Amino acid sequence: MCKYKALFVLFLTVLLSSCSNTPTTTEIILPVSSAQGDINKGIIIAQEKDFQKAIIFFSSSIDKNSKIAEAYYHRGRSYQKLGNFSKAQQDYYRALRLNIRYPEVHNSLGVLYTSQGEYRNAIDSYTTAISFNQSYAKPHINRGVVYFREGSYQKALFDFTRALEIEPKSTLALKNRANVYSKLGAKNAVCGDLKQLCQFGNCASYNKLTKIDYCND
């Protein structure tokens, strides 16, 4: 009996010893899920502009877990890059059904509407994107472009200026704001933005205007 008791005590001691070596919750490194892993691979491939292959990975992620809004968003962007606007729109809607507060999706949907000339829908989408992320420069730039096309120059000026407050080195915002200033006849402001643009390495427009003495004051 003592023999068995000793064995039991020995077993319990070993068990407790192994438990004490188990890593805590904060020490455990959880593997990336298979579905998320496919999204990550798809993003890398999309950056290489192989959108057809990227779609395969995003679709694989959706097959494994249909509740990840990110997969639909990125697949929608790939479809949009390929010119398949119908499938892109469907994926954006699916992403928003899973997460209505997804500013990047609203912005991409706005880009899609803009490309189709649906300016009112585009402005609504950009405005929604901004409402969910006040520090998101892209929808300000994109909405400003639509306002510019409509001839709403003051609204466009506001958006490009706001984008530059968020991202002071945004060459796209500077180029567009210079165009607005040009429409408004604000010569000094045009030259100021183009000079700043030149400081970021894009001097073509500024050099062209200095050659004709437009920006030599």
The pLDDT mean sits at 87
**Helix-residue proportion:** over 70%
**What is the element string, with H for helices and E for strands?**
HHHHHHHHHHHH
Cα-based radius of gyration, to the nearest Å: 27 Å
How many beta-strand runs? 0
Query: Number of helical runs?
Result: 12
How far the N terminus sits from the C terminus, by CA atoms, comes to 105 Å
> Could you describe the largest sheet, including whether it forms a barrel?
none
Strand content is under 5%
Describe the protein's architecture and organization:
The protein is mostly helical. It is 76% helix and 0% strand. It is built from twelve helices and no strands. The longest helix has 19 residues, at 2-20. The radius of gyration is 27 Å and the shape is elongated. Residues 1-32 have low confidence and may be disordered.
